[in-house]
Specification:
The structure is a homotetramer of 271-residue chains. The first copy, chain A, has 271 residues and is of the alpha/beta class. In chain A, 43% of the residues lie in helices and 19% in strands. Chain A has an 8-stranded mixed β-sheet with strand order 1-2-4-3-5-6-7-8, with helices on both faces. In chain A, helix 9 (221-230) links the parallel strand 7 and strand 8. The relative contact order of chain A is 0.15. Chain A binds chain D through residues 124-127, 129-130, 132-134, 136-137, 140, 142-143, 145-147, 150-151, 153-156, 158-159, 162, 165, 215, 217, 220, 222-223, 241, and chain D through 124-127, 129-130, 132-134, 136-137, 140, 142-143, 145-147, 150-151, 153-156, 158-159, 162, 165, 215, 217, 220, 222-223, 241.
Chain lengths: 271, 271, 271, 271
């Protein structure tokens, strides 16, 4: 099912696959619903999988003025309302993980469990500055590619997937050169700068699996450790030899970790 | 279902729970089928869960003469034969992980996927010496308890579960004082000393999830890294703030990791 | 110079080597001044090196009744007084690191800089229990050896130094069998159980280098991280592939780290 | 002493400070002799400290055509010859560490000991691509700043030194906008692309201290681990919570590590 939910005047694109307890997958900043295509079969086998394009992503409406994550949280609930879904699990990576945590703060009763990959409690001054660097060359496809892409991946993945990386570069440079797309990326990046849930994160009580990568150079592992320390009902697993985009670098493992966390209700074990 | 499989003259105790593709759970050295009781519900929901007592464990027959892991591999296949099972997944921890890897080497066509927690490629000289220390005080319940148990757990778990640890001590010291049980532990420990699959591990091609714990003081994380480097179709995840007995320290996460690895067939993703 | 300082009725053995600003080296629990023999030349080249046997160690007097670290702090200052030394640097490992920190709390004006290896802020419940295990087999040389020694070393060191470890075992088992020596070890171990400087550690303002080992199975690396977080003027370095006894496993590096920390006064750099 | 050594037609700037066994400090790619100003006092107290501007750095001659590291190795030996120095220690960071290792391969008898910070065995495809990204925006000061600088530092340092980072940005953007300076950086970066000593590194037998940073996002810690595994006479220390520019983030510790490694000859300890 491919649909649009209405959020005020705007359309939020989503699609659903399969049946079962709803599982929302939330994109990283440069991703779209299409990024998850290889995961659809495996993640929809036992779940009603819902993919969403955030505003300024993919087939959702573009924005004009600056905004913050709050509107993306609105978008999520607009989709759930559109589908008549009371409660869902959410797995989000990077930007999507940040938005997922805020959705759990906004309407905790509607989120059952969380998987948060490669995100932290806040956008550090350092990460904000990296975002400024991306925005500074927005529209210059080649400069934007180099500013943002290589350091998203781990050196080992890069070496082992040179062809894939080159294909990606060939595809992304024209895309990043498109002024409309470039403006979307700028707004998305800007929308993250104010992200900071440090003060209220301890009220997120959903069972949460946090995934950190040992060589994440955007949201270093320390960020996931801090997040785990704050979330009262969370566990952290670390993927060695993996960069920020864990779902690209270790897709089978990423899918396993998501499915495993959602596979059972039991949190107390009388060992 | 609770049954015994015959292995030559010996009886191998096993029990099965639930339906689905068979999942064998293999014990650590001081464990038995009973150790998994809190996991039965969650692990049998979608699998035919098979618990086994190795020889010299729980309700299986005791041995007399020394042996090596080979006889435990025999025991596994005796159980599978008894059940008429052609192929199964195996999840094993510590001793059970070592035996699981050897089962995959012995009859690779009968093992579909593996989860190996807190085990390595071989029994290092260091680990062998720790085993000598256990055996040296075998039968002296208190000495054996102190020689073997505290360093199995991480300091953080120990602090947070003082009551549980004290109850465990109160239960284990009498048990370790029983000369029959003590002799079983000695033989089990001795049976691991020759464990070394370094030379052939690269022929284990089953999709394998390796679980390592950051503060494992029996099979330190480096052992899982070496194992992962050798197994051509394996992934490693690291659990921080966790000791050797990951299934006791992080039972919900352990269950999630096992279920997640078994939840899908897809290893190739056209990302 | 080999001398005894008087502490009430008791004699504290010490020796000094070389000239320069005084550097006190403080022993781990099973060590004595003799353990540092291989380090004397290198550490006394530019320092007045002072080795001390704590009470109940080496050539210092034996104790009878239980005590805590306080008396070892007394011993340190008795030695400094005996030598007429106003101010000294201290490098301590394990037990010696714990005592060094308490000396800095007791008479901060007399301690210039600190190197603290393989120690933490407190004796955790876990570490206390490991100590109980040592004491439980005190006097049984072989059992004590196995309870305490192998897990002090990293697996990699153990493998690469098998002859040394065997020589050590041959020497230590008779020593641990000596009831007088065994009683000393019991008291030393007991004296650590109450160690806890968590509440006041942040008042230790000496420039402090903290050394942690990646596979320390007595005072795991997390303990040094916690210590570093509390000491306002401290730095942490991590030695990979190294166990608790870093001065035995990496003696050249250990000496370099100590000498480097003491080699300069400059803490502020206008970079 | 401030001088120029002649290398063919080119002048290599160097300066010396203090007396003692010579210690050459080698710059990272964006550094110059001036970057070490805060270290001069502490590093020249017991050493004849030699600072060098590589060709295309600081006060040394600019190049025109592309070159590789070989010419920088030439520059080092031209300076040593000019000073009549037979043998020296070298400490190098990043680019300077790579050149130091090649100097040790070229004239091993003239290099006594090495300290190699934040460098690896080769320029990975990933690191090369990051270099391409820098070069792609060469001359655009702001874009170059963002492409290269933030990810050199760790998030924690960045947060704690916001004023310093802002001052650095204000200074570097104009500098990076200068076409002459930009062309120098391009050539320096290009000169690293072919760096690969994997095949011969095991013949470097000088006592070598390798310094790795836990959150190095240019030459991740894994690179230093690989380097350490290859160098037969090396030790690795890890600085936690530190990025690629360890000498800027932890200057006092960096100085201590260098001084400590050079403070003694003793590599064998009869422990």
């Amino acid at each position: 099912m491919r649909m649009f939910a209405a959020l005020a005047e705007r359309a939020v694109y989503y699609e659903t696959h399969g049946d079962g307890f709803p599982l929302l997958l939330l994109n990283g900043i440069m991703m779209s619903t299409k990024s998850w295509t290889p995961f659809i079969e495996v993640l929809s086998a036992r779940h009603r999988l819902i993919l969403i394009d955030f505003l300024d992503q993919g087939q959702s409406d573009k924005m004009e003025a600056p905004y913050d994550h709050g509107i993306q949280v609105d978008a999520i609930f607009a989709v759930l309302d559109d589908l008549g879904i009371e409660s869902a699990d959410i797995a989000g990576i990077s930007y999507g993980g940040q938005v997922a945590l805020q959705a759990a703060l906004r309407q905790p009763e509607r989120i059952r469990r969380l998987v948060i990959a490669n995100a932290g409690l806040s956008t550090s001054a350092w990460l904000a500055e990296i975002g400024h660097g991306w925005n500074n060359v927005a529209g210059d496809g080649r400069a934007y590619y180099y500013a943002s892409i290589p350091s998203i991946y781990s050196p080992g993945f890069y070496e082992s997937r040179k062809d894939w990386m080159e294909a990606r570069r060939a595809k992304l440079i024209p895309l990043f050169s498109d002024p409309v797309f470039a403006a979307q990326l700028v707004r998305l990046t800007d929308s993250s700068e104010s992200y900071d849930i440090s003060a209220e994160a301890d009220s997120i009580t959903q069972p949460t699996l946090i995934i950190g990568s040992e060589t994440d150079c955007l949201t270093p592992l320390m960020e996931q450790k801090k997040l785990q320390a704050k979330l009262p009902n969370s566990e952290l697993v670390i993927i060695p030899d993996c960069g920020h985009a864990s779902m690209y670098e270790k897709p089978a493992l990423f899918a396993s970790l998501v499915l495993g966390h959602l596979a059972h209700d039991q949190r107390e074990f009388a060992i």
